[in-house]
Amino acid sequence: MSYVLTTAGVPATQQFDLWQSAVSQTFVPLEATAGEHSAFRGRLRGQNLGSVAVYEASADAHTVRRTARAISRAAPDYYKLSLQLHGTAKLTQDGRQAALRPGDFAIYDTTRPYSLAFDDVSSTMVLMFPRSMLCLPSGQVEQLTAIRFAGGQGVSGIVSTTLVQLARNIDDPQVHGSVRLARNVVDLLGTALADQVDYADVPAETSRAAMLVKIKSYVESHLEDPELSPGDIAAAHHISTRYLHKLFSEAGTTVSGWIRHRRLERCGQDLADPGKHQLAIGVIGARWGLVDASYLSRAFKTEYGLSPSEYRRRSVEHRAR
After folding, report:
1. At a CB cut-off of 8 Å and minimum separation 6, what does 5 contact?
2. Taking the complete model, does pTM exceed 0.90, yes or no?
3. Among 1, 3, 20, 197, which has the minimal tally of Cβ within 10 Å of its Cβ?
4. H or E element: which one contains 255?
5. Nearest 10 degrees: CA dihedral of 187, 87, 96, 164?
6. Domains and CATH numbers, the chain
7. Mapping DSSP to helix (H, G, I), strand (E, B) and coil, where does residue 274 land?
8. Average pLDDT by consecutive 10-residue portion of the chain (321 residues)?
């Protein structure tokens, strides 16, 4: 279910208070100051896709601050991303300031103070997600907060285009509840951040983590290929198969184990999706590279403790409550 809030129809003296309360409850506690006008136009719409909050905020000039006092009241462990859709904004954190124009985005950390200033009427796409969803070490991400990622080039351009499309379609019924879509967007963001790592100037463990982010993003986009192999993955990243296995071993898993886990997660998401209820279980498995129906059934039950058909039935019963 999408969430929509607007200050339209609210007495002018109450409009900004309503806005500050809405953004604080939707994201994290914030302190805000309005521009010079007595009335304040603001509109917030979006939804939570699993653990990822996806919202578009359109408003008159104002500034929001994540202060030490607000952090002391509640310090959820999240990253936020702001993509500028219209107008301009200035994000400040960790001694840096990113001036954002339409198409640009920047990332910031809710556990440390920051501010966002909108000097005029603007519209912003905001993502908020648990910090654990990014594979990069937190110390490395800290070096990338309040850094402008240009919307028209490289991987950051792909992220920008994806988010703009998401903003345009946020009310589309096919987007509602699409946890997989949100996860893919965060994975793509991780790739854009990893591209900023200077492998020559960072500790070896950081460069390995950044490489792992890129590899996992590649695997995510090739899960439907039943022939996907460690050799293919290593060759695509110009590393040896042995080094590939080492990267996953250091992360506490194996290449094949992680691929299987992600394929089963994708299958589980499809099995729980009402829009895919008519798809046969074998068809769902095949679309994620698991073409052997008997193997799918055994692996799924090992992973989730339920057979695919039982998992689908439980999901239907849960939605009916």
Report:
1. 18, 22, 42, 43, 44, 45
2. no
3. 1
4. helix 255-271
5. 10
6. 3-204 (2.60.120.10), 222-320 (1.10.10.60)
7. helix
8. 84 93 92 85 89 92 94 86 95 95 94 94 93 76 89 78 82 64 80 66 58 80 90 92 92 90 87 85 94 94 91 76 56
